[in-house]
Amino acid sequence: MASLAKLPVPDLHDTVARFAEAARPLFSADEFETCLAKLNDFVATQGPTLQARLHQRSAEHANWLEDWWNEYAYFLNRSSVCFNVNYFFGFRDTPQPMAQARLAAALIDSAVRFRSQLESDSLELDNIRGKPMCMYQYQYMFATCRHPGEQRDWTEVYPRSESTHIAVAHKGRYFVLRVPAASTNRHADIAQIERQLQIIIDTTAQLERAKSIGVLTAALRDDWYTARECLLQVSSDNAASLRVLESSAFLVSLESVAPVTHKEFSLACHCSDGTDRYFDKNFQILVFANGRYGFNGEHSLTDATTDMRLCNVLVHDVETVAAEAQVTTAGDVAEGAPATFEELHFDYNNELLGHIQRAVEYFDATVAAHELSTLVFDSFGKEQIKKMKVSPDAFVQMAMQLAYYRQFRHVPATYESASTKAFARGRTETSRSVSAHSAAWCKAMVDHPETTGLHAKAELLRQSIANQSQFTAQCAKGSGIDRHLLGLEFALQEGEERHALFEDQVFTGSRHWKLSTSQISDPILAAYGWGEVVDDGFGVAYRIENNALHFNVVSQRMGSARLCQYLADALMDMRFLLTNAHKQPHEIMAEVDAVANVLTSIKLLSSSSSQPTTPTETPAPQPESRFRGPFAETPVAHAMVDGLDRLPSNEVICALEARLSRFVKESLSWALPSTS
User: Fold this and answer.
1) What is the DSSP code (8-state) at residue 134?
2) Helices (H) and strands (E) in the chain, counts
C-alpha cells in the first residue's frame, strides 16, 4: 500500500465547471442560473482559500478525504443501518445440498482460515488488470463492531486475543462458539464445528421477539444508543455478554426461514425479521434452513467490493466441501481441543422491554413501508451489449434513466458508486449518470418521440453512454466532483461563514440521490442489494452477466415493481434502437406486418392441426424449433420471442400476439408514433 499514490485534490475550476454541467439537466433554467451565479462567486471568493486547505490537508494525511467521508456518510448518519446502510449478498446454490449445520460449519472454517491468511500477510494483493488496489480496509474485516453514540457512531476494533470466538444467532438467542486453530485436517475441523452447531439447532427454544436484542440494532441510531445504554445499566452480566458478542470475529445466523424465490431470498438476506442478526457487526454470515446462504455487511469502514474477496473464498470452499466424494460425519473428531459453545444471557427490566417493543414496532412498520422487487432479465446480457459497441455498465445506467423518466416524467439525481481503491486508503466516488445528452434522450423517447428519428435517438443514446463511461473513468483516476465538493465544505473552520453556495437548492438537491445504484457482477451471487438512501428514492443494485441482467430495487412504496417493468421495457427498446437506427419507420412497420402475417398463418395451421385425426392420417412432423427461418431473424421477432420456447404451442401463439400488440402500442410508440 505504501507504493500507492495519494488521492489527488481535483482542480477547483474543473470541479465547478463539471458540477454545473452535471446539475443543469436536473433543474429549471432559473434555478440553475441562480446556482451558477453562486458558483462563480464561490470560485472568486471563498473557494481558493478552502482549496488551499485541502492541499495542506493532503500533505499531512495519507488520504485527505478518509476521515471526513467516514463521518459524513456513516458515523453522523442517524438512519437505520439495517435499512439504509448495510448491504447484502445472496450466494448461488451449492452443487450438492448441504444440511444447515454442515453448511454453517464449512463457512466458519473457511472464514477462520481466511482470517489467518490475512493476519499472516499471505494473501495475494488485490489488483485490477495488474494494477494494485489498496487493501487498507481489510484491517476492519474481522473483529470489529460499530457502536451507536449520542451524536455520532464509532467503530471498535478488538485485539486478536479477545476475538478468536464466533458469535452464533439462532431463534433469537446468541451463543459464543469457541473454535480451535485450524488444523491440516479440514474435514475433521468442519465436522466438530458441525456437531456443536447441530446441538444448538436441536436444543434451542425460541426466544420471544419481545426480548430480542438483535432487533434493537435495526432501530434508528438515536433510539439504539438510548436502548444500548439501558441494556448496559440493567446488569453487569448484560455488559459482559454484549462485550463477548460485539468482540466476536464475526457472526453466523442460523436462520429458521427457508427463502425460495428471488424476492424471498433478497428480503431474507436484507433484514429477515431482525431477531437473528446483529447489524452492527462487521459482517454476518446467513445460513437458512433450506441450505441457502448469504452475507450482510456493515458499511462504515469496509465496502462491498472488499468483502467480495472473502465471499469468493467462502463460496469456493463450501462448494469444494459439497462436491468432494469423501463424506465426513459429525462424529469425526479433529486433533487438539474440541469446539465448544455457550449461550449468552441477558437480563431485562421494564425500561429495556419498552425499548425492544418500540424497536419491533419500528422494524415491522419499516418493512411494511418498503417494497423490494427483483428483475431477472434474461433476453440478453453483456455479450449482446458489447456487440452494439457500447459499455455494458453505461448501457444499464441509461436503461435506469429511461425507466425512471417513463415512470415519473423527470430526470433523477443519480449516484453510481465508482471505486478509488487505486489510491492509498481510497474508497468510492460518485459517478453521475445524468448528462445533458441523457436528459435529451429520455425526453426524445418519451415526451416527443415524433420530433426525432431513430438515428437521432440512437446518437443521443450513444453519446449518453459515452458521457457516463468517461465520467466513471475520471472518478477512478481521482477526478470526481462530489467528494471534492464535500471536502471543500468540510474545510470550513468553526465559526467561519458558509458561502451561500452550500445552501443553494441546486447544490443540495443535485445530491439528493433518487437513484442510488451500484454494480457487482460476480458469478457467485444470486442476490445483491441494499436500501434507498433518501425517502423518495430507490436503491438499485444490479449484476451484468453474459446473457442476463439482474436488478434488486428497494423503495418506500415508490413503485419498485413498476420500475422493474419499465427497466425491462427500456432494455428491449434500447437494443431495438441501437440495432435498427439505420432503418426508416416504414421498414420497421413492414417487419411488424410480416411477423403479424406469420403469426396469423401459424394460428390457422395450429387450429387445423388440433382437429381429431382419422386412423389413416399422420400428423405433420414438427420443426426442431418454432422460431427458425426468416421470421425468427427479424429484429422485431427477436424482441418478441425471447423466453417463449418453453411454452406449449397454443400458449406461444397467444403470448406472441399479445407481445406484438404491446410491442407496437407501447414499446415502439417512440419509434412509430403513428401506430399508437
Assistant:
1) -
2) 23, 18
Backbone torsions φ then ψ of 492, nearest 5 degrees: -60, 140
- To the query of whether residue 370 is one of the catalytic residues in this protein, the response is no
- Angle between the 12-23 and 47-60 helix axes, to the nearest 10 degrees? 120
What is the rounded distance in angstroms from the CA atom of residue 470 to the CA atom of residue 480? 11
Residues 6+ apart with CB under 8 A from 625: 632, 645
Q: What is the pLDDT of residue 619?
A: 46
Distance, in Å, from the CA atom of 553 to the CA atom of 512, rounded to the nearest integer, reads 17
Q: Name the nearest CA neighbour of 12 among 2, 23, 20.
A: 20
Residues forming beta bridges with residue 174, ordered by sequence position:
169, 344
Instruction: Give residue 674's pLDDT.
Output: 45
Distance CA 307, CA 284 (A): 11
- Of the candidates 125, 249, 276, the one whose C-alpha atom is nearest the C-alpha of residue 178 is 249
- Ranges of H-type helices in 449-582: 454-476, 482-490, 505-509, 560-580
Q: Mean pLDDT over all residues of the chain?
A: 90
pLDDT in tens, 470-524: 999 999 999 999 999 999 999 999 999 999 999 999 999 999 999 999 999 999 9
Buried b or exposed e, range 479-496, using 16+ CB within 10 angstroms: bbbbbbbbbbbbbbeeee
With CA atoms as reference, report the closest residue to 432 among 451, 418, 446, 450.
418
pLDDT in tens, 122-157: 999 999 988 999 999 999 999 999 999 999 999 999
Q: DSSP for 320-369?
A: HHHH-S----TT---SSSPPEEEEE-----HHHHHHHHHHHHHHHHHHHH
Evaluate whether 530 touches 83 at the Cβ level (below 8 Å): no
Count the Cβ atoms, other than its own, within 10 Å of residue 656.
Answer: 24
H or E stretch including 616?
none
Determine the pLDDT at residue 593: 75
Cβ neighbours of residue 494 under 8 Å, at least 6 residues apart?
none
CA–CA gap between residue 398 and residue 70 (Å, rounded): 30
How many CB atoms are closer than 10 A to CB 231?
24
Q: What distance in Å separates the CA atoms of residue 430 and residue 414, rounded to the nearest whole number?
A: 9
- What pTM, to 2 d.p., does this model score? 0.88
Q: Of the listed 165, 262, 299, 484, which one is catalytic?
A: 299
